[in-house]
Specification:
Layout: H1 2-18, E1 28-35, E2 41-48, H2 52-64, H3 66-76, E3 84-89, H4 92-112, H5 114-124
Parallel strand pairs: 2-3
Antiparallel strand pairs: 1-2
Helix pairs in contact: 1-3
Length: 125
């Protein structure tokens, strides 16, 4: 299944970047695909560069182009069934950026006041 998921991800990623002309679809990256065991359904996880409105418009554009993308998938890959595509936003990039920001802020705070932690250690010890 992993090989099928990767093949579907590759075909859809290329198609979205090069062949999709819907102006609603902004800078979209296919991050993962999860195909059902019977190959009838595939969840396509995408990351969208931009704000909430851009994300919503891009997802709407992808959902309206699902027939085109499904047909393209059928011609590119030889599968027993061509899966029905559903698109979902992958928020893992947002979560990663948030965690990186929190860590960077904590690191900056600890570098600004190195004496605070040393004083606290002496008081505790």
């Amino acid at each position: 299944m992993r090989r099928v998921d990767e093949a579907v991800r590759g075909v859809l990623g290329d198609a979205i970047a090069k062949e999709l002309s819907d102006p609603r679809v902004g800078f979209v990256t296919v991050t993962a695909v999860k195909t059902s065991p019977d190959l009838r359904h595939a969840r396509v996880y995408v990351s969208v560069l931009g704000d909430q409105q851009t994300r919503s418009e891009s997802l709407a554009g992808l959902r309206s182009a699902h027939g085109f993308l499904q047909r393209l998938l059928a011609t590119e890959l030889i599968l027993k069934h061509t899966p029905t595509l559903s698109f979902e936003y992958d928020d893992s990039v947002d979560r990663g950026m948030r965690i990186s920001g929190l860590l960077a802020r904590e690191l900056d705070a600890s570098q600004l006041e190195p004496g605070v932690s040393q004083r606290e250690e002496r008081a505790d010890g």
